[in-house]
Amino acid sequence: MPLQNLSLLPEPARRLETVVNQPFSEAWAKKYLQNLTQQDDRIEVLKGSEIKSEVAKTLMQALRTTTLQAWGRTEALLSQEVIRHQIDPELIDPWAVAKDTHQIYKAALSAYSEQISPAKFSTRIARDLGKIRRNYTADDPRVIGFISMQFHYSGQILLNLIPPAQQSSLRDYFKVIDDYLYMPLQRSYEAAAAYDYDSPRLQAVQKLLPLCSEIATKISERVMQMYPNYQTYTGPLSNTNVQISSVRDIEMFQVYLWVCVLENNISAIQQELFPLCVMLYPRLKVRWELVRQLIHLLGAEIRSRLEPEQADYFLPYYDSLWAMFSPQVFSDIDTP
SS3 string of the chain? Predict the structure, then answer.
């Protein structure tokens, strides 16, 4: 049953003339509550019908509030980190961030409503998300930590507004947004474009590319088995949202390695990935021991999936990544 555009304002006074000995204000209040009840009833019907267009319409109406709530959560999580890392607050304009968040999630909800596949949505939105990422990282790459959390929280809040049965399909669209903001995907595409198709370096990256999610899922499951009682800021490693974030982070590490291989330098990891981890992981209660385990397992996967000469392209950057997160740099005493 389609959700009607109900007005919660009172009906014109002439339609209340039949009310006997009842003040106008009381009639208005009762009518207001009646409209709210009717709205709730229609939403309950909507939950049962799982009509994508109506779910999207309902969430569209919540977008403005959602972006404000997400900003509040992001500020609470990272405002001290912005100060600690001495990031210029002028680089994080709340109005610009809110506008970008609203625009991107509106596009995602439209694609969901029109039953455009997440893969096609990814193709359509890649350029816009790449532009947003470039704009925010142009002066200070560390700003992406704040921006990516703002977008991530917006998606989480929206998902929590709909029943679990509907969350799964919509989450795929929101994952596209997370991926393009957390990962330098557009940068990897641009770097790859500089190579001939038969370049051995490019072919090494291309061999791993379709295995990215499989590798990330395997590592995430292995880490979950190794640390069954581990608790993050969001919950245990077995928590659905934590699992999704874990897989995304392992994919992110892989993409940063691709960029290093294709650009033939370590700057992407030094200037973006490392500061991003330092900013977010302590706040999210992710210990450095866990990060090192992730990197160790990733190295084993790279070696097992590639020919030795192909793995050689990755190993210098992998070794640098390992050194950055070594116990000599971090101990878990540093993690709150």
Answer: CCCCCCCCCCCCHHHHCCCCCCCHHHHHHHHHHHHHHHHHHHHHHHHHHCCHHHHHHHHHHHHHHHHHHHHHHHHHHHHHHHHHCCCCHHHCCHHHHHHHHHHHHHHHHHHHHCCCCHHHHHHHHHHHHHHHHHHHHCCCCCHHHHHHHHHHHHHHHHHCCCCHHHHHHHHHHHHHHHHHHHCCHHHHHHHHCCCCCCCHHHHHHHHHHHHHHHHHHHHHHHHHHHCCCCECCCCECCCHHHHHHHHHHHHHHHHHHHHHHHHCCCHHHHHHHHHHHHHHCCCCCCCHHHHHHHHHHHHHHHHHHCCHHHHHHHHHHHHHHHHHCCCCCCCHHHCC
